[in-house]
Specification:
Elements (H helix, E strand, L loop, with lengths): L13 E3 H10 L1 H9 L8 H23 L7 H18 L27 H4 L2 H17 L3 E13 L12 E15 L3 H4 L8 H9 L7 E9 L16 H17 L7 E8 L7 H12 L12 H9 L11 H8 E5 L2 H26 L4 H4 L6 H5 L11 H4 L6
Parallel strand pairs: 1-3, 4-5
Antiparallel strand pairs: 2-3, 3-4, 5-6
Length: 405
């Protein structure tokens, strides 16, 4: 009697929008070490702040929903307990801010502090200040609109350049987490609910940017970014084009959402760049450079002339200029128009990235060295902060002078 052989296991590779697509675009080799080699960065401050601000906004929404907290929220009584709750969660996962100027935790081992021990200086720390501004500037308009938050969406696509002899699968999966999903009738938002009306800044912003439409329901995909607003263009050809990448992320989210049964036909996107509410000195240096080189859409023409003057006159050794709240709000919000043509372009780019990753994986499986199988192309800022720069053959400016003692 001949026993049947066990069939070969079938696996569909799965890729996320942020963990894979955006990480690989930043640098393929860094992506290989961190995502495929499970070698996390030694100082993951950008990851810490991104997850911190997402967690704070999610918990703040739940507090608003179930405890009916009204704006403005008091930092010490309402916001600080949320901050430390989220920070404690991140510590359990091994994520810490690298600098006390960014965040001061009462949960730090050995301190045994309470909220009563905090002072005004702690309130001014960057992460806390941005969390407070995000809740008090955007939260009061955003929270009433939310239908779902932290919504996981998935889909599958044909594997690009599929080859039955080499490809791992004939399909691949895409997954992403939508920070906020909301629905509204753009031209009659004030009639839907007494929770919000024409004074809602987000509804007004959508109406201003949306083309003339009837009162059909629209879904709005909203994504938080713990970073400054990126420039419209990049000067270094090896630099990551964050402006375009963020647009493609929202477009891909919209495609994934369209595959779900309860989705609506009409869709638009909004990105909130929360660092703009409390810019750092480093942020302001870049904003100044972008204004001088016509690399930003906000401000434009004669808009915010007083703020432009303050920024252009500011020097790095000076105190931070007192920029207007309207200027900060305008820079912190971005509208993404969604249509079938733009969505297909975004999906084509995702396919190309997946093809590059899969090709590199196959090369490595066949015995190719890691640094030969994966592309290492990144801007100087990414390279200078990379833990693998000392042995990356593509970073010659650093490796040529590096000697093991």
């Amino acid at each position: 009697m001949k026993l049947p052989t066990r069939s070969k296991s079938y696996m569909i590779p799965e890729y996320s929008l942020t963990g894979d697509l955006l990480s690989y675009i930043t640098c393929g080799l860094q992506y290989r070490y961190q995502n495929k080699g499970t070698l996390p960065p030694s100082k993951p401050v950008q990851r810490w702040f991104g997850e911190f601000i997402h967690g704070v906004m999610e918990e703040a929404y739940l507090d608003w929903k179930y405890q009916k907290k009204q704006s403005p929220w008091d930092w010490k009584e309402d916001i600080r307990p949320i901050e430390d709750q989220i920070d404690l969660r991140l510590q359990v996962r091994g994520l810490y801010p690298y600098d006390e100027d960014l965040f001061f935790s009462i949960n730090q081992p050995g301190r045994n502090l309470t909220l009563d021990d905090l002072n005004e200086h702690d309130h001014k720390k960057l992460a806390s200040a941005r969390a407070e501004m995000a809740i008090n500037i955007w939260g009061k308009d955003l929270f009433p609109l939310i239908d779902s938050s932290e919504l996981l969406i998935k889909g599958i696509r044909p594997m690009p350049n599929f080859d039955k002899n080499t490809s791992r699968s004939n399909y691949y999966g895409i997954n992403g987490v939508v920070d906020v999903l909301t629905s509204t009738k753009i031209n009659s938002a004030h009639n839907q609910s007494n929770l919000y009306d024409f004074d809602n800044k987000i509804v007004n912003f959508i109406r201003k940017n949306m083309e003339e439409s009837d009162d059909e329901d629209y879904e709005i995909i909203i994504d938080y970014k713990g970073m400054k607003r990126p420039p419209l263009k990049v000067s270094d050809p090896h630099s990551e084009d964050k402006w375009e990448n963020h647009k493609q992320q929202i477009l891909t989210y919209s495609w994934l959402r369209s595959k779900q049964e309860d989705s609506k036909a009409n869709c638009a996107g909004i990105i909130l760049y929360l660092n703009e509410l409390v810019p750092s000195k480093e942020d302001l240096v870049l904003i100044k450079e972008e204004i001088l080189n016509d690399m930003t859409d906000i401000p434009k023409d004669d808009e915010f002339s007083d703020d432009i003057e303050l920024i252009l006159e500011w020097q790095e050794d000076d105190k931070m200029p007192n920029l207007s709240e309207e200027f900060k709000k305008a820079r912190s919000i971005r509208f993404i128009k969604i249509n079938d043509e733009e969505r297909e372009k975004a999906l084509d780019k995702f396919d190309r990235v997946v093809n590059d990753i899969e090709s590199s994986l196959v090369k490595e499986m066949k015995g190719c060295k890691i640094q030969d199988a994966w592309k290492a192309e990144a801007d100087k800022r990414t390279c200078s902060a990379c833990d693998f720069r000392t042995f990356c053959k593509n970073n010659s400016d650093i490796t040529k002078d590096f000697k093991i003692p």
